[in-house]
Design a protein that fits this description.
- It is a single chain.
- By secondary structure, the chain is an alpha+beta fold.
- It folds into two domains: 154 residues, Gcn5-related N-acetyltransferase (GNAT) (Aminopeptidase, 3-Layer(aba) Sandwich); 166 residues, Aminopeptidase, CATH 3.40.630.
- Helices cover 33% and strands 29% of the residues.
- It is built from twelve helices and 13 strands.
- The strands form two sheets. The protein has a seven-stranded mixed β-sheet with strand order 7-8-9-10-11-6-12. A six-stranded mixed β-sheet has the order 1-2-3-4-5-13.
- A hairpin with a 3-residue loop joins strand 2 and strand 3.
- 36% of the residues are buried.
- The mean pLDDT is 91.
Amino acid sequence: MTHWKFFAGDKSEWDELLAQRNFLSLYQSYEWGQIKSQDGWQVVRFLQWKNQETVVGMAQVLMKRLPLNVAFFWCPGGPLSETPDLDFREFRKDLNFGMFYFRASFHDPNLGLKELKSEGWRRPRVAINSNLSMSLDLTLESEDLRKNLSSNWRHNLKRFEKKKIHVEPWASPDPKTLFDSYQEFEEMKNLSAQHSLKSIEGVIREYQDRLVILRALDEEGDLLALRGYIYSGRKALDWYAISTAKGRRCYASHGILWNLLMDAKDRQLEVYDLSGVDPVGNQGVYNFKKGTGAQLVEYPGEYEKASSAFLKLPINLALKQKL
């Protein structure tokens, strides 16, 4: 018999419990909650107890209040539990809401779909994020990683290496400079905003000791590309990625990612998560990541619950408009 309770500890306690989970998600880290708390979300953390003695699950949930006293709960990367039966009706009085809508994004590939459905979870009409990612095994030797590159990827990397391009760590990244670079990149690629200045400031502030950014510069010192990852435990998560028009012509995206992978290996990280992919809607990015030799990973992905089925349709329609 298990029971969910509010987490009343501090960051060190949460980090220790999170490190014990088999499927660590950056979005369940204490730091991510701190970032989102500055972005209008109320952060609520829960522990799942077995027989009041052993912690068997945990969930960092983001909460927003909607009209008519409806609470919207979003749990990216969790709950981290084999039996994710978190029921917000038990916490209605403490959190002061009437009806609720709960969206979770499960990252445990071994989580059974039958178990999810038996707990009342259903697939949403509109997904917030992709349930597909690419994972690269960094325990391989560098020579083997290079052999596993696709022939085209390896050829482009060789082209990059023949050019006079300087790759350096960005030890003290400036949020405004990074944000401005993203705006130029988004305009060039006709993309919607990838990161707000506020979110960049939050990531640099909260993950400063675990954030690695490399920059590729030409002989004049102009930026060609940058890429970064955040690491936790033995896992790295691809986070920032920018290339300029000039950088694309000299295959800087290939060179900067290869250097970043070697940096992660030097830190003895074992897995590099290249983050979400869409093989149909964004085939170019998918092929680029696939060319590294990374393997496609399919997570259970997003599921929803609600105190009333009537909440699901309007919330999914609102998410569709926002996305």
